[in-house]
Design goal:
nine-stranded parallel β-sheet; Alpha/beta knot; two-stranded antiparallel sheet; 41% helix; 297 residues; alpha/beta
C-alpha cells in the first residue's frame, strides 16, 4: 500500500513569514521518511472542517512546484483541482510543467469543485454543477489530446464550453504516456464514469462499506467503456493524529482499507508542522503499511 501526505492548512507557528520554510521542511522530511506522494488542496479560502475561512491558503500549483524543489522521490498533486478555476490549456500546461521540473512526478488531480463561497468571493464564475461536469469532461479531453499531440500537427478542439485552435504542448511531460490523472469524488453516474473513461486514479471518501460499494460501481463503469478496472489506482483520504491513536491502531485501520481494495491512502496529519510527527510515522508506521497488500477486487 502507498501512503501520501496532504497538507490542508498553513496556519503554523511563526505566521506568514514561516509558511515557506515550514512547508519546505515538511516536504523534505516526508520525502526522506518514505512517503510516496505529497498533496495540497486546490482552494483559495480555508475550508470548513479545517479552519476559519480567513486562515492562510496557498495557490495549489505554485505550492506543488515549491514542494517539488524540496523533494526527490514523492509524486505531487492537487487533492483535487477545481475545474472552473483554470482553462483546460492551463490545466495541461501546469501539470506538464510540474512533471518536467520534478523529473516526472506529477499527478493531475481534478474534479467538478464545490466551493461557491471562494469562487464568488474572488470573482470566479461558478456554473451549475451539471455544467461543471460538462466542463470537466471537455478539460479531460483537451488534456489527453495535448499529451498525445505530435509537434506541428496538433488538432483544434471545438466543444460546447471550450474552443482551441492548436493544442500545442511543448515540452511534453516526462511521465508516459502522461502525468497520472486523478479524479476526485464518488458520484456513480457522472464522476465514476469520467474516472473509467479518462482517469488513471480515483479518490473516493468514506469507510470500508462505502468504498466496497463505490469500487463495485467503478468496475461496472469500466466495463461499460471497455476499460480494465485494474488500470485505475484506488485512493482514499484519511486523517491521522498520533496524540490520540497508537501506531498499531493506525496500521490496523489502513489494513482494513487494504482489505477492501484501497491501494493508496492519502492522509492529513495533525501537528504536521512538527517534523518529529512525520519522522515517527515514517519510522513506526510507514514500513508496516508499505508491507500491506491491497486485496484484488
Amino acid at each position: 500500500m502507498k501512503i501520501g501526505l496532504q497538507v490542508p492548512s498553513f496556519t503554523w507557528p511563526g505566521g506568514d513569514a514561516a509558511i515557506g520554510p515550514t512547508l519546505a521542511r515538511i516536504a523534505e522530511t516526508a520525502d526522506a521518511a518514505g512517503f510516496d506522494s505529497l498533496w495540497v488542496m486546490d482552494h483559495f479560502y480555508q475550508i470548513r472542517g479545517v479552519g476559519k475561512v480567513e486562515e492562510p491558503m496557498l495557490e495549489g500549483w505554485t505550492a506543488l512546484g515549491y514542494m517539488a524543489a524540496h523533494s526527490k522521490k514523492a509524486t505531487l498533486g492537487l487533492m483535487v483541482g477545481g475545474v472552473h478555476y483554470r482553462l483546460p490549456g492551463l490545466w495541461a500546461k501546469a501539470a506538464t510543467t510540474l512533471d518536467v521540473l520534478s523529473g516526472g512526478r506529477a499527478y493531475l488531480g481534478i474534479g467538478a469543485a464545490w466551493n461557491e463561497e471562494e469562487s464568488l468571493g474572488l470573482g470566479f464564475p461558478m456554473p451549475p454543477l451539471g455544467v461543471r461536469f460538462e466542463m470537466l469532461e471537455e478539460t479531460l479531453q483537451i488534456c489527453h489530446r495535448m499529451w498525445q499531440g505530435v509537434r506541428g500537427s496538433e488538432a483544434a478542439f471545438d466543444g460546447r464550453h471550450y474552443h482551441a485552435t492548436r493544442l500545442l504542448n511543448s515540452p511534453q511531460a516526462l511521465s508516459k504516456p502522461h502525468p497520472r490523472i486523478l479524479i476526485g469524488g464518488g458520484g456513480e453516474q457522472k464522476t465514476l464514469r469520467l474516472v473509467a473513461q479518462y482517469a488513471d486514479a480515483c479518490n473516493i471518501f468514506g469507510g470500508p462499506d462505502q468504498l466496497t460499494h463505490k469500487f463495485s460501481v467503478l468496475r461496472e463503469r469500466c466495463a461499460e467503456v471497455g476499460r480494465p478496472f485494474e488500470e485505475i489506482e484506488r485512493t482514499n483520504l484519511q486523517s491521522v493524529d498520533l496524540r490520540s491513536e497508537t501506531p498499531a491502531q493506525i496500521v490496523d485501520r489502513f489494513a482494513t482499507l487494504a482489505e477492501v481494495g484501497v491501494q493508496h491512502v492519502i492522509l492529513n496529519m495533525a501537528g504536521v508542522s512538527d517534523p518529529s510527527n512525520i519522522e515517527t510515522f515514517g519510522r513506526e508506521i510507514l514500513p508496516k503499511v508499505h508491507a500491506l497488500e491491497p486485496r484484488a477486487i
